[in-house]
């Protein structure tokens, strides 16, 4: 592995880069423990050794690859502190995997020259492992653990047996992992009891993440037994579980992959216990195994452990495991690949050479955020924990699982030299009401200077920025304490916090133009508005743009075309964005304009200057975030085609979907709910589309007709969600005619659909001609073409007027389509005929 990384051979090179991006792979990592007792049903406690164990392993790997002694010392320090402290560990879901990772670190240090590992370290860590491998109430050596939970417990127990060279323990655990000894057979994790002869993975009747846990823990145990069998360290006890019962593990992985790629699978009802029957396979979280697993911020090991072993070590062809091989191609690289990739899987491409000496990871410092995990003190390890997280903003630690009444202290929090009265917090919570975050000075009961919130986003790691005004402007350095209350989460968790910061305002919030502190040449208007004649300006000092902005949105009123410029520093400063405004006809309308996302980042003095055209009246203005709130899913990531045919068009990075076909796309993120689903596509004619989530038999979440794009250009159509799913879901898209699909995305920014207005009379008389005006407006400034999708018999659309002489009484339906060349919107109205 080390040689492959140093040569720059794939996939080891990319996997190593992923490992050292992880915030736990840092010689500056701050321990979450050690603790004497690690029990269950308290997530911050459960994850202490879980997170520290991963950090020990990551630092040991970093030292092994780079030779940097700082990583070695950190790994040794973690292991030694826990070895000296632990007396009881009975939590087997989140703590035990950390023990397994810590054992892997100890193996590297123990058998690598120059590590500084001593006989005393072996004795102390062996004592820790004996604790873990004891029966309750001391350890986790038990055979009644529930399905995947037993798998997580047993990867630690197998690691203990190997490190201790205890053949009796190994044999006992091997029997549990193969034949199974759980007193409730339906709840067993073993190969014989969890996986049926046809590959059915029984816990798939519960949901997909937990069934995935069965597979991955059994795979890690299989890898351990395969290594021991090869090395002969445990004699005949080192039975290879990959080959056990005619590749039973492979049959389970293939069954699991098939369903999670969007295909149907046969299901035999599974009697879990006397009171619970899994009647059918569960669609819950179907397909979410190609990206990061949130629990430990690692990818699914289905590729690195299971596919690679069967394909490269045992010679199983892709055609004999088509679903697993298809899923493996969609799973990214990380330390699973670093550890488990066989030499035969090496890329034939030219090696890239050794890695750069130092990574450049983490959030952009220009954002001026204070990481929530950089606390000075907390109310206790029972109340708060740090957790690794990676997204478009970089790799970092976040704070999560904050308990009711918990608090976090930040000493020397710098408000800066300029008075700042806005406190911003980025967080998320699995709750239906906001979590209240009180901002105190000096202590949890000190002066209250603000009340912030964590938005109820639907999940802890679905982040949203909130802002609050402080009770008074602050400058200089102070100790602040955040206290957390008010969540109605069933487990009393208050949520997660990514970062905090202070400023004199936020660009991402609606800013009232008339309240802008800097104004030059403006005229006051009604309803908290302000008018900018030519050359006039409004501005905000120290306005926080954080990671930039993709677009400018404003409530605008004009009587002719006009232009605004966004300038920094002063009204005469450099222009970083120009916004062409339409003639709104003297009425208030929303306007949205795209801009370069990195044009302004961090805290800046900014000014809007009217540089030409008609006077501009402004109500509110805001700038979006610098990254999409909803990530686009490329159609080329298609997981399966359950009906019909689809073909990836490599040159276009798009997917050709044939008529009467259905495709399954990897889970699309809807967070706490979205309004529309946008499809980027092209087609020769109209295409009827139906979208389902999780299964093809569920109620559709979106239905519509995509207009043709006869010019061959890609266009975007938005389908209303009815209602929107929450969080991420596998999507099935069915079409009745061929189309080329580029991507799908919930609520994209900078793609405002046209707005249609239909002036429907209160009552229309049968036999009398009626003329119904139709008008269109596009916030992006594009021309809108109006067509009729559905009209009553005898009606026609004539130059944006519906002309109609109804014959019969009753309600009649009209469906109109507005097309601005980029986005399509539909307007349905009902006309009452008397």
Helical content (DSSP H or I, runs of 4+): 10-25%
Distance between the termini: 80 Å
Total strands: 46
In percent, how much strand structure appears in the residues? Answer: 25-35%
- Which oligomerization state do the chains in this entry correspond to? single chain
The coarse silhouette is globular
Estimated radius of gyration: 30 Å
Average pLDDT confidence is 91
Helix tally equals 14
Largest sheet: 6 strands, antiparallel
Reconstruct the topology from this structure.
Layout: H1 2-7, H2 12-21, E1 37-38, H3 43-66, H4 69-85, E2 88-89, H5 96-110, H6 119-132, H7 148-164, H8 167-178, H9 191-194, H10 208-231, H11 244-260, E3 270-273, E4 276-278, E5 292-293, E6 298-299, H12 302-313, H13 322-328, H14 335-340, E7 370-371, E8 377-378, E9 385-391, E10 394-400, E11 407-414, E12 420-428, E13 435-441, E14 448-454, E15 464-474, E16 477-485, E17 496-503, E18 511-512, E19 518-520, E20 523-525, E21 529-532, E22 537-544, E23 551-557, E24 562-568, E25 575-581, E26 589-594, E27 603-613, E28 616-623, E29 633-634, E30 640-643, E31 646-649, E32 654-657, E33 661-669, E34 676-682, E35 687-693, E36 702-706, E37 715-720, E38 728-735, E39 739-746, E40 755-758, E41 770-777, E42 785-790, E43 796-797, E44 801-804, E45 810-819, E46 824-833
Parallel strand pairs: 1-2
Antiparallel strand pairs: 3-4, 5-6, 7-17, 8-11, 9-10, 11-16, 12-15, 12-17, 13-14, 13-16, 18-28, 19-22, 20-21, 21-28, 22-27, 23-26, 23-28, 24-25, 24-27, 29-39, 30-33, 31-32, 32-39, 33-38, 34-37, 34-39, 35-36, 35-38, 40-41, 41-44, 42-45, 43-44, 45-46
Helix pairs in contact: 3-4, 3-5, 4-5, 4-6, 5-6, 5-7, 6-7, 7-8, 7-10, 10-11, 11-13, 12-13
């Amino acid at each position: 592995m080390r040689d492959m990384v140093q040569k720059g051979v794939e996939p080891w090179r990319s996997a190593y880069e992923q490992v050292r991006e992880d915030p736990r792979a840092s010689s500056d990592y701050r321990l979450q423990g050690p603790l004497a007792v690690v029990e269950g049903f308290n997530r911050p406690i459960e994850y202490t050794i879980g997170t520290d164990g991963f950090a020990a392993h990551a630092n040991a790997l970093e030292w092994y690859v780079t030779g940097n002694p700082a990583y070695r010392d950190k790994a040794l320090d973690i292991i030694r502190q826990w070895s000296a402290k632990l007396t009881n560990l009975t939590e087997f879901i989140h703590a035990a995997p950390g023990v397994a990772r810590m054992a892997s670190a100890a193996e590297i240090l123990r058998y690598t020259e120059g590590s500084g590992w001593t006989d005393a370290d072996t004795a102390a860590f062996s004592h820790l492992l004996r604790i873990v491998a004891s029966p309750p109430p001391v350890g986790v050596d038990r055979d009644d653990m529930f399905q995947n939970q037993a798998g997580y417990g047993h990867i630690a127990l197998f690691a203990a047996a190997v490190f201790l060279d205890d053949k009796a323990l190994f044999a006992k655990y091997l029997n549990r992992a193969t034949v199974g000894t759980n007193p409730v057979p339906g709840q067993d994790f073993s190969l014989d009891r969890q996986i049926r002869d046809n590959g059915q993975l029984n816990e798939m009747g519960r949901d997909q993440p937990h069934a995935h846990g069965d597979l991955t823990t059994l795979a890690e145990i299989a890898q351990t037994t395969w290594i021991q069998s090869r090395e002969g360290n445990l004699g005949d006890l080192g039975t290879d579980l990959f080959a056990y019962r005619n590749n039973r593990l492979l049959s389970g992985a293939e069954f699991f992959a098939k369903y999670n790629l969007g295909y149907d699978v046969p299901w035999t009802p599974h009697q879990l216990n006397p009171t619970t029957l899994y009647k059918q396979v569960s669609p819950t979280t179907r397909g979410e195994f190609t990206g990061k697993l949130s629990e430990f911020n690692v990818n699914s090991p289905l590729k690195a452990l299971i596919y690679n072993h069967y394909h490269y070590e045992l010679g199983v062809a892709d055609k004999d495991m088509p679903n697993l091989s298809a899923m493996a191609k969609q799973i990214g690289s990380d330390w699973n690949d670093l550890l488990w990739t066989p030499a035969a899987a090496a890329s034939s491409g030219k090696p890239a050479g050794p890695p750069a000496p130092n990574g450049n990871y983490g959030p952009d410092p220009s954002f001026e955020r204070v990481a929530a995990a950089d606390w000075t003190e907390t109310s206790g390890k029972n109340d708060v924990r740090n957790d690794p997280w990676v997204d478009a903003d970089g790799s970092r630690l976040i704070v999560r699982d904050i308990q009711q009444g918990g608090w976090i202290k930040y000493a020397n929090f710098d408000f800066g030299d300029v008075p700042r009265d806005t406190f911003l917090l980025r967080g998320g919570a699995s709750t239906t009401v906001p979590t209240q975050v009180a901002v105190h000075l000096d202590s949890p009961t000190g002066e209250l200077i603000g009340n912030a919130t964590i938005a109820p986003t639907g999940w802890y790691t679905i982040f949203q920025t909130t802002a609050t005004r402080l009770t008074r402007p602050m400058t200089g350095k102070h100790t602040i304490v955040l206290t957390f209350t008010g969540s109605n989460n069933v487990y009393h968790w208050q949520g997660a916090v990514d970062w905090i910061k202070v400023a004199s305002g936020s660009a991402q919030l609606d800013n009232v133009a008339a309240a802008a502190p800097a104004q030059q040449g403006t005229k006051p208007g009604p309803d908290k508005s302000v008018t900018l004649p030519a050359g006039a300006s409004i501005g905000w000092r120290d306005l926080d743009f954080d990671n930039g902005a993709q677009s400018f949105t404003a409530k605008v009123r004009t009587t002719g075309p006009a232009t605004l410029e966004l300038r920094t520093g002063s009204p005469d400063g450099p222009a970083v964005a120009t916004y062409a405004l339409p003639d709104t006809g003297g009425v208030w309308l929303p306007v949205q304009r795209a801009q370069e996302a990195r044009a302004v980042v961090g805290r800046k003095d900014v000014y809007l200057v009217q540089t030409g055209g008609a006077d501009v009246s402004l109500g509110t203005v805001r700038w979006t975030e610098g990254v999409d709130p909803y990530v686009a899913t490329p159609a080329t990531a298609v997981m399966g085609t359950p009906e019909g045919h689809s073909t990836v068009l490599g040159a276009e990075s798009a997917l050709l979907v044939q008529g009467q076909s259905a495709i399954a796309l990897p889970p699309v993120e809807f967070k706490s709910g979205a309004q529309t689903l946008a499809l980027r596509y092209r087609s020769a004619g109209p295409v009827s589309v139906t979208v389902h989530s999780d299964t093809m038999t569920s109620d559709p979440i979106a239905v519509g007709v995509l207009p043709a794009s006869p010019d061959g250009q890609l266009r975007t159509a938005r389908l209303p969600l009815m209602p929107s799913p929450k969080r991420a879901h596998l999507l099935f898209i069915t079409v009745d005619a061929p189309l080329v699909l580029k991507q799908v995305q919930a609520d994209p920014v900078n793609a405002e659909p046209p707005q249609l207005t239909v002036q429907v009379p209160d009552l229309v008389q049968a036999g009398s001609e009626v003329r119904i005006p139709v008008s269109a407006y596009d916030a992006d400034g594009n021309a809108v073409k109006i067509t009729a999708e559905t009209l009553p018999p005898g009606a026609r659309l004539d130059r944006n007027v519906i002309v109609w002489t109804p014959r019969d009484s009753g309600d009649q339906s009209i469906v109109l389509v507005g097309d601005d060349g980029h986005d399509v919107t539909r307007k349905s109205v009902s006309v009452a005929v008397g």
